[in-house]
Amino acid sequence: MIRAVIFDRDGTLLDFSGMFLAFVDDLHVRQGLSVPSDRDHVLSLDYWHSIEKGRTIGDILVMDHLDRIPRSYMEQAQFFPGTTDVIRTLSNGGRRLAIASAWVATDQTKCLLVREQVADCFVSVLTRDDLGAEAVACTPSSLEVKLALVQRILKELEMDPREVAIVGDAPIDIQAGKALAMRTIAVRTGNFRFLGNHLEALAPDHVVASVAELRASEHLT
Q: Buried-most residue among 8, 81, 134, 155 (CB within 10 A)?
């Protein structure tokens, strides 16, 4: 039986599209440019790949400013519909819950949980911020960061990894869970909206449309 659940944040619990649009708009305004009218394109995987390849807005290299999104725009964020209800149901049912994000902004995440009135449901909230600069320098990849955070939470929980599930929207969530012999649950929100064709190769234990579809009786027994 699964006694604890570790959630990814962005794209899993959190719909960060509003944050991202506000960030992109502000960069355009700072450069005296019109904000993009094609909102779907800005939220597309192609646009994100263009950032990874060095996209600039005016003379701003967007990649250099990405950490501002969760640090400065968390107020624009919101949970996916039904997420709060599932969090409360799992917590009330005795499951211990945690968040592990390979991105930054631990403090802002905790403020979001307070705003959503679920802060009391989580026993641990960790992001890349919690590794410290030296540790991040030694663990450069997102997968390595995710693994380090999940391992820290497992230590805090004092549980066998086989009693813990990890829920996420990206390949690194499933890869980290499998590396640690955890139950793996993929959600078709966030990254897996675009990378659903990767799911067969990743072979998570369960695939659900969103966190709102997560059921203890079906996925956590």
A: 8
Indicate whether 36 pLDDT > 70: yes
Residue 155, pLDDT > 90, answer yes
Which pTM value belongs to this model? 0.95
Q: How far apart are CA 19 and CA 117, in angstroms?
A: 20
Which residues make Cβ contacts (< 8 Å) with residue 77, sequence separation at least 6?
14, 15, 16, 18, 19, 70, 112
Residues 199, 213: Cα–Cα separation, whole Å: 17
Going edge to edge, which strands form the sheet with 164-168? 122-127, 96-101, 4-7, 164-168, 183-187, 206-208
Percent of the chain with pLDDT over 90: 93
Joined tokens for residue 179: 């590396």
Please state the separation of Cα 16 from the chain's center in Å: 9
Distance CA 64, CA 48 (A): 13
- Which ranges constitute the DSSP H helices of 53-131? 68-72, 83-92, 106-115
